[in-house]
């Protein structure tokens, strides 16, 4: 008797994927949060990680940009961009629908800071935001599996900025 092979759509697999081994707590800071790469690549990738339950429960995303805005306006703008991927073939992210639960999970961990990269004031705001995230999400930076890792190793920085900001 021949075995029957059932092809399962990836959407079924992702939706029912078991949670992976828990990742270490992490706060990610994106410099250039209003930029094209953030909208087209970084946030869709983070959304996918949220959908597959691959991000740690204690995860935070801090967007930093020169443009005026609020956390809510940044979230809304990113959601609108994510919606353009629905049903689009050949794009960076091809999805049939947005998983509201996965998006809401990610969106509630987002915050936005407006500021100029050339001013020390911005870095003080980022430090305060990271401290607030640590308190709000009860991040335990020392929970990592490798005690030699520092707090900074759990705060990845993604820099997408104009070249003149960092002249050599």
Model description:
- With 168 residues, this protein is an alpha/beta fold.
- It has one domain (23-140, 152-166): NAD(P)-binding Rossmann-like Domain (Rossmann fold), CATH 3.40.50.720.
- It has five helices and four strands; from the N terminus they run αβαβααβαβ.
- The chain has helices at residues 10-15, 36-51, 71-83, 100-107, 120-136, and strands spanning 26-31, 59-65, 110-114, 157-159.
- The protein has a four-stranded parallel β-sheet with strand order 3-2-1-4.
- Strand 1, helix 2 and strand 2 form a beta-alpha-beta unit.
- Helix 2 packs across helix 4 (100-107).
- The termini are far apart.
- Residues 6-10 and 143-153 have low confidence and may be disordered.
Short description:
The chain is α/β, with parallel strands linked by helices and 168 residues long.
What is the CATH topology?
Rossmann fold
Averaged pLDDT, please? 77
Number of strands: 4
CATH class, anyone?
Alpha Beta
Low-confidence runs: 6-10, 143-153
| Elements, N to C (H/E) | HEHEHHEHE
Largest sheet entry: 4 strands, parallel
> Roughly how much helix do the residues carry, as a percent range?
25-40%
Categorize the overall geometry: globular
Q: Give the strand line-up of the largest sheet.
A: 3-2-1-4
Core attributes:
168 residues, alpha/beta, four-stranded parallel sheet, 5 helices, 12% strand
